[in-house]
């Protein structure tokens, strides 16, 4: 596959490197009340265990800011070193001043130029936050949003556009204003003493084509790492499809260094779903590996039984749950490929191509299920205990092939970088 990443500066956020040939980083955000330190720490740990490499928390009140250092301490006690990103709007400079432990405990600040304030007062607030970040060696994401764009900048650019000989559409001017806001704010930050290798930019909108257009333009005009994501992706399949459509185009063009899938959670669904979607976008594109992948057929009139559907679901869930342990114990296991097929049409062929595959019987077929390991038929399963027996084969394969003394090693992926 011909693929190259956009060349950027590299930003260090604790042990996480962002930009250029570093892996695209998965980020998520809590939805707990940050003032509830125990609940927030638990959710950060859940997101981290699911694979989130950066977690953003809301810092919107004195009560929230007062608990950030405790949240960091709780996470450290749980053995979780995932960097925390503080999300500041409107009053960030006051919270950082009043709660210096918060300023120190966070690994990165997120600042929205449109929500800092207007005029000279806004400039002072922005300057205080930037200088605080520089003093503590913290990275900053300057995050511009379509819904909270600096209105004074937008009006100035709209007025200039109307006075021009060939005015652009209002939509085009607004997209340009997003980019200008991000770039001008980044330059202000540098002028205030924040090193250029501590800055990440984002220009989020909620429409797929607008996001692609804005990030292509932004990426061509700076060498800062870029954080990707629709600002409000939506709920369920709509949010997943919209995020995948937008981010896949940009990632394929080498644009994007951190990603977040801003899903509206279904009632009762885990917050970790947004992490899973982000990982699966990167993994199905072949850009990173996070967890063993399950290939499964969609089913048809040949597969009236639900056995293969249930087994595919159980295998997928089992593999993802095991990764919390396997990630450290069996390096390279994330590249494992498992096939769960439902009939004789493609079953044996797909099973042979996977590391481990099972070809279940379709309607009217002999009620046996051959299992293939590294392309060779290993055993034939039958009866009501096939799922447990197949899981045992998967576990044995992992133990024998990955980690210390294993036959397989983690595959390193070298991503070529575009020439400057």
Automatic annotation (TrEMBL):
The keyword Kinase is annotated on this UniProt entry: no
Domain IspG TIM-barrel: 8-278
Domain (IspG C-terminal): residue spans on this chain: 294-395
Cofactor(s) demanded: [4Fe-4S] cluster
Associated pathway: Isoprenoid biosynthesis; isopentenyl diphosphate biosynthesis via DXP pathway; isopentenyl diphosphate from 1-deoxy-D-xylulose 5-phosphate: step 5/6
PANTHER family according to UniProt: 4-HYDROXY-3-METHYLBUT-2-EN-1-YL DIPHOSPHATE SYNTHASE (PTHR30454), 4-HYDROXY-3-METHYLBUT-2-EN-1-YL DIPHOSPHATE SYNTHASE (FERREDOXIN), CHLOROPLASTIC (PTHR30454:SF0)
Protein name: 4-hydroxy-3-methylbut-2-en-1-yl diphosphate synthase (flavodoxin)
Organism: Conchiformibius kuhniae
Gene name of the record: ispG
